[in-house]
Structure formats: structure tokens, C-alpha cells
Write a structure and sequence with these properties.
alpha+beta
């Protein structure tokens, strides 16, 4: 049965409204594409400007970029020949350089007179180059059909190159901009990389959508529009749903990646950071053999020395001890617990530590120090033997996680003085002495140490020979790549193999060999910093300064570092201290104010942690997914049953046709490429025995002509179409409702 429409013809007015809508859409899409490209290029320009410290102002370079992109956009749709503008820019570049050469003889002989014109010429050249690059890329975007695809591929290649150093969690090799931004946002470099990757994915999706939009004009030969991905009329609601789905999918994937690798990353990035001594920590070690300690340059703390400490025997290097590992568990050295290593405070920055000065120690000087933490630390670190530690009021809670003041008695002897001392403490019990002399079960360590020291008998000289041997022969690398089973000795492949490792390997090897020679030894953990990079008594510690070193005990001097500093370096996390950042932090530190311990400072505003910036939880993302799923199927209900909603005859006819076609799509009956509506209905009728074409006939009559008819006839015709679809099995129709095809493909 074919029904006719009862409404008057509205073909001309409807067509006019559609054309006006399409024109507005095209202008909006055009402006959005231009704005997106400009902002993306401007951000990239800003990163390059800060990374390479370009002298030309960022504002002028951005204005040159904007001017060139606007000019290229206008000229791309003009009758001007394509080669004229870029040639003009190059001529301007040549003229500026030629004029500089001609006037060079007029420059004064003073330093300022010589450098100032060169600086001006550099600014001009950078501005011209920025304008030329902006013009060429924008012109190609509008005039070359597949340029957008090439631009995306080139951008992704640069981004992969940018992120490549982060493979295997080697964040120490990451660009400085990543660490700086992570520190400013109070998050980890790892979390920021995941977030940046998510943003890049989303921006690439948006760019693809804009570049392939049917409303985006182009002047490429033989093509009226770009259609890299899709073409067709705009559907704002559908576009919003698709965008939301993309955001949700990327967020879920990012969150899963973050959750999967978070524990590994934390153990890598914070490797060696000490923990408070509890029952659970006894027999464990904060060190690991899967990566070097603190493998990134994230700022960790600022140390203010109360004096010059010119007596430092290891100058210009300064050791700040945080923990000690002295118990051997058959595989590695671990926390020994109470009764041993009693010189380690093991307290947090919010606790008070007080002990008596050790009268058995000779040649010591008092060294007060104040520490302002930039990252979380479970326990304090100090210079050598601390006598007291007391919390300080946090001078800048937005920057520092906490602060404390320590008073230490630090060594003032010379390392050559050790030659006159015997190893060990005569006041130790037999139990304590045996604890620090417990040897490795592998006899190769003793044999190796014996070969190094040879005929030497002096304990201090022997200890120096062990560390000096590894200093000259070992290779420092962030990735030793030793394959060791969980229960095997991780140091053996290093010492008896290729001698490639990092401080954890060096410290264990030296400690094992010292003990085999009868010298009490242990591993100390904390920071090793270079005082030559300090400024006015202030030291900026980074995670890359995390360190582990061997210590031997000598009578009267206590625990003495015997550190390995390899002369051969394959890869290293170290870099110059950011002096600008150090000065900024120094400006935040005012007069020191001590806090009353325990409960009195629990609610102190200065001790509140600043809010961290991290990825949303999986539960939150699942809630968002649930809401979006509800919105998705609400839209599905509108597609299937919207024709039952109130409305005039024309609206109900259109919604009825949409409902029938949506059902056909979800049932698997879709139009083929270049297939007309009539051909589609004929194929459905002949192949599947369905004949839902009444609604289409009514819609066609409504669009191209007007004849009289009864509203009851219209209702009857549409219901006949739905009755045709009722011939399909109920289970199949039920499953079709969960098919998302109609939401994504319906036009």
C-alpha cells in the first residue's frame, strides 16, 4: 500500500534552511580547523622556545606564525599563483641578510656594537623562518589533498621520537620539559607521560575528524572537499557521543596502562628510597637490581647547610645517609632491625629524634642542616651521625612536602688517617661483630678480593684498593641487562661477568669483599651530591642523586664510605643542577621556625600535602562509562521509537522512516555503496521477503510534491511497515537493539 502526504509542499523553504545550515556548518568547521592547527603549532613553538632557550621572544614568533597562517589561508583561496608568497618571503630573507652584510662595516668595534646587529639579524631570520614554515604548511593543508595525512604521520613520528627515551622506564633520559612540568604539576613523570600520550591521542582524533569533515573546503584539483575518513552531513549529537566514546576509551586504556605499570615504575623511580623501620620492614631492602637508583632528575629536596663544612674528607662530594643494610639473607643485604645500625634515626620528618653524642668518635665537627622536602620521604636523611632531628614549619606548602632541621657530628679527618686505625669497634659484642662480618656463601667473593689486594695487609689500604679497582674497571650503566632468576645472586653476573652495573651492584660487591677480608662492612643508602653545584650553602637534590655505597667501620672514626665512582660511563642519569630552580626555591625559604613535636603539629597548615595531579580512578571511569552507555541507549530508543512522540505530521513521518531504517541497519540490512533507496528496498524485498517501503513513499511525496490524504491512512501505512519487521524472529529483534550500528551509520 502506498500512502500520500496530507501536508502542503515545503520543498523550497526546507531546502533553503538546509543550505543555510550547511553554510553555517562549513564556516564553523573551517574556523575550528584553522584555530586547532594554530594552537597546536603555537604550543609546539612554545616548547621548542623553552627547550632550546631561543633568544627571540616567544610572543613575536607566535605573531609571525599567526600572520603567516592567516595569509596562507586567505591566499590559498585566491587567484594568486601559489609560488608568489613563499618566493616573496625568501626574497625578504635574502634582502635582510644582504643588507646586514652591506652595513657590517659600519658596526662599532665594541662588544655591544658587534653583537647587537647579529642578535637583531638572528631575530629577523627566526621570524622569517617561522613565517615561511607557517605559510608553507598551512597552504599545503588547504591545497594538497592528502597533506593532512602526511602532517599527522610526521607529527606522530616526532612525538614517538620525543617519548622514545622513556622506554623501559628510563625516565632519566626524558626531556627536561617532562620533569619540569611534572614537578610543577605535583605529579610523577610517569603519570605525566601517560596523560600526555592520552592528550596526543585525543588531539589526533580531533584533527582527523576536522581534516576529513565534509564541510571543510579545499582547493585541491578535482576535489571539492576532503574526505580522509568520513563524509556526510553533520550530526551534532552523534558527534558528541562519538567524541565522548573516544575520550572514554582512551581514558580507560590510559588508566589500565598506568595501573599495570605503576608498581614497576614506582619501584624503578623511587628505587633506594628508605622506609620506616617496622616489623614488616625487617629483612627487606629498598634497593633493587632492575634499575639504577632514582632514574630521573626530578627535584627531591633542598638542603641548607649551617656552615661551609670545609673539613669534609670526601669534598666536593657529600654523603647524606638515610638508611643502612647490614643483614645478609643469602641473596642480598637487607634491613637488620633493632640492635644494629643504631646511628640511623629511622624517623619521619614530622618526628623528633634525639640521642647522645658518640664520645668514641674522634675528629668531628658540628654541622647543622635544614632539609626542605620536594617529594615524599618516609624517613629523614642527614650528614653522617645525627644527634638531633626536629620538624620545621613548612615555609611554602605549595612547593614543599615537609621540612626538618638536623644537627650532625660530621668527620673532619683525612682519609689517610685511616691507615693507623683498626677495623671494628672494640665495644661491640661478639654478636654485633659477627653480624657485620657475615660473609657471602659464594667463595668467589673472597678469592676475588684476595686477588685485588695481593700482599697488602693494612685494612684501610685494602678497602681503598677494592673500591679503586671497581672505579677503574667497572662500567656504569643504567641497563646492565643481567638475566638472574628470583632466588639467584644478582651481584655475581656483575662482579664475575662483564662488570656492567650501577651503585647497587658496586655497593654489594665491595661490602661482600670487605667482609671476606675481615673488615666490618654494610651498605648505606641516601644521597650523594656535588657541593660544587651548591649556591650560598643551598643544595638541590634530585632523584638522580639517590645512591647506595659501601661503608667500613674503623675504630674512632665510625662508618667510613668506600664508594665506587666508575671512570667508564655507558649511560648516566646525572646532569647539571637547575640553578634557576634552586634560586626560586631559595627565595621560598625564610627564617626557620621549629614545630612542637607529636600531636601539636598534626593539624599544622604548613604540613598539609599539596593536592597531587593524577589520573582518575578506574571506578570513576567505569561510572562515566555507565552514564555514557545509558545516554547511548537513550539515543537508541529515540531512533527506534521517536515516531511515537508528539509532533506534526511531517515530523512523525520523518521519525517513522528513521525508526524503520534504524531497525534494518541493526538487523544487518544496510545500503550498499552507491545503492539508491529504491534499489535498497527492492533488494530487501526480494532477498529477505520484507517490504517496509510505505514510510519512504510518504516521505518522498512530502519532499517532492503534495497530495491530499487522511491521517489515519498515514498511521496505517507506517504501522504496516513495522508489521513487516515483526516477521523477523523475536530473539533476533531483541539482539538488534544492542547493535550500535544505527547510531554510528544512520544518515
Amino acid at each position: 500500500m502506498t500512502a500520500t502526504a496530507i501536508l502542503p509542499s515545503r520543498g523550497h523553504s526546507t531546502s533553503s534552511r538546509q543550505e543555510e545550515h550547511i553554510s553555517t556548518l562549513h564556516r564553523f568547521t573551517f574556523a575550528l580547523a584553522f584555530l586547532f592547527r594554530f594552537v597546536t603549532y603555537a604550543v609546539a613553538l612554545g616548547i621548542l622556545h623553552d627547550t632550546f632557550a631561543i633568544s627571540t621572544s616567544q610572543e613575536s614568533l607566535t605573531l609571525a606564525l599567526l600572520f603567516s597562517q592567516v595569509a596562507a589561508t586567505i591566499l590559498s583561496f585566491s587567484r594568486l599563483r601559489s609560488w608568489v608568497p613563499p618566493v616573496g618571503i625568501l626574497l625578504l630573507f635574502g634582502a635582510a641578510n644582504l643588507l646586514f652584510r652591506l652595513l657590517q662595516s659600519f658596526f662599532t668595534n665594541t662588544a655591544a656594537g658587534i653583537l647587537e646587529p647579529y642578535s637583531l639579524l638572528l631575530d629577523i631570520n627566526l621570524l622569517v623562518f617561522t613565517a615561511f614554515f607557517g605559510y608553507i604548511t598551512t597552504w599545503a593543508y588547504w591545497r594538497v589533498r592528502f597533506y593532512a595525512t602526511l602532517e599527522i604521520l610526521a607529527t606522530l613520528f616526532l612525538l614517538l621520537t620525543f617519548f622514545a627515551p622513556h622506554r623501559d622506564f628510563q625516565l632519566a633520559l626524558a626531556p627536561k620539559v617532562v620533569h619540569t612540568l611534572a614537578w610543577e604539576l605535583n605529579t610523577s613523570s610517569f603519570a605525566l607521560i601517560i596523560i600526555m600520550g592520552s592528550i596526543v591521542t585525543l588531539l589526533t582524533s580531533i584533527y582527523l575528524g576536522l581534516a576529513s569533515h565534509a564541510g571543510l573546503p579545499t582547493r585541491g584539483k578535482g576535489h571539492a572537499t576532503q574526505d580522509i575518513l568520513v563524509a556526510g552531513k553533520s550530526r551534532p549529537l552523534l558527534g558528541t557521543i562519538l567524541t565522548g566514546l573516544i575520550v572514554l576509551i582512551v581514558s580507560l586504556i590510559s588508566r589500565q596502562v598506568y595501573s599495570h605499570y605503576q608498581q614497576i615504575q614506582e619501584s624503578v623511580g623511587a628505587n633506594g628510597v628508605g622506609f620506616k623501620e617496622t616489623e614488616e620492614s625487617i629483612g627487606k631492602s629498598p634497593l633493587g637490581f632492575h634499575s639504577a637508583l632514582g632514574s630521573n632528575n626530578q627535584p627531591s629536596a633542598v638542603v641548607r647547610l649551617g656552615g661551609d663544612y670545609q673539613e669534609n674528607p670526601t669534598s666536593p662530594m657529600l654523603f647524606l645517609r638515610e638508611g643502612a643494610l647490614s643483614a645478609f639473607n643469602g641473596k642480598e643485604l637487607v634491613n637488620a632491625g633493632k640492635g644494629f645500625d643504631d646511628d640511623i634515626p629511622g624517623t619521619s620528618a614530622q618526628e623528633v629524634f634525639q640521642t647522645e653524642e658518640r664520645l668514641e668518635l674522634d675528629e668531628r665537627v658540628p654541622v647543622p642542616q635544614s632539609v626542605y622536602l620536594l617529594t615524599d620521604h618516609d624517613v629523614v636523611f642527614t650528614i653522617d651521625y645525627p644527634v638531633s632531628v626536629q620538624p620545621l614549619e613548612n615555609p611554602a606548602p605549595q612547593r614543599f612536602r615537609g621540612a626538618y632541621q638536623a644537627y650532625s657530628v660530621a668527620p673532619s679527618y683525612h682519609l689517610s688517617d685511616l691507615l693507623d686505625r683498626t677495623p671494628g669497634n672494640p665495644n661491640w659484642t661478639e654478636l654485633v661483630r659477627d653480624h657485620y662480618l657475615a660473609q657471602h656463601t659464594d667463595k668467589r667473593y673472597a678469592d676475588f678480593a684476595a686477588r685485588i689486594v695481593g700482599e697488602e695487609t693494612n685494612p684501610a689500604a685494602r678497602a681503598s684498593m677494592l673500591s679503586n679497582f671497581l672505579t677503574k674497571n667497572a662500567i656504569y650503566t643504567l641497563t646492565p641487562n643481567h638475566e638472574v632468576k628470583p632466588n639467584e645472586d644478582p651481584v655475581a653476573p656483575f662482579l664475575f661477568g662483564d662488570l656492567r652495573g650501577y651503585c647497587v651492584h658496586f655497593a654489594h660487591a665491595v661490602t661482600y669483599m670487605l667482609r671476606s677480608l675481615g673488615i666490618p662492612a654494610r651498605i648505606a643508602t641516601g644521597y650523594l651530591t656535588d657541593l660544587s653545584q651548591a649556591r650560598d650553602g643551598h643544595i638541590l637534590l634530585r632523584m638522580s642523586d639517590r645512591h647506595a655505597w659501601a661503608e667500613a667501620y674503623f675504630e674512632g672514626y665510625g662508618w667510613v664510605p668506600f664508594d665506587v665512582q666508575p671512570e667508564q660511563v655507558e649511560s648516566h642519569a646525572d646532569s647539571e643542577v637547575d640553578s634557576q630552580l634552586l634560586e626560586e626555591l631559595m627565595g621560598l625559604i625564610g627564617p626557620e621556625k621549629t614545630l612542637i613535636p607529636e600531636e601539636s603539629f598534626v593539624e599544622e597548615p604548613g604540613l598539609k600535602e599539596p593536592p597531587s595531579w593524577s589520573l582518575p580512578s578506574t571506578v570513576a571511569l567505569l561510572k562515566i562509562a555507565f552514564v555514557m552507555l545509558i545516554v547511548f541507549y537513550l539515543w537508541k530508543l529515540v531512533l527506534w521509537y521517536g515516531w511515537l512522540l508528539p509532533g506534526d505530521g511531517e515530523a512523525k513521518i520523518k521519525r517513522a522512516y528513521v525508526a524503520i531504517y534504524a531497525r534494518l541497519l541493526d538487523l544487518g540490512y544496510s545500503r550498499k555503496f552507491a545503492e539508491t533507496v529504491q534499489e535498497f528496498h527492492q533488494r530487501v524485498k526480494s532477498s529477505y521477503g520484507l517490504n517496509p517501503e510505505n514510510s519512504w513513499e510518504i516521505l518522498r511525496h512530502l519532499k517532492y510534491g503534495a497530495v491530499t490524504g487522511s491521517p489515519d491512512e498515514l498511521q496505517s501505512a507506517m504501522r504496516d511497515d513495522f508489521s513487516e519487521l515483526a516477521k523477523i524472529h523475536l530473539v533476533r529483534r531483541f539482539l538488534a537493539f544492542f547493535n550500535p550500528v544505527s547510531v554510528f551509520r544512520l544518515r
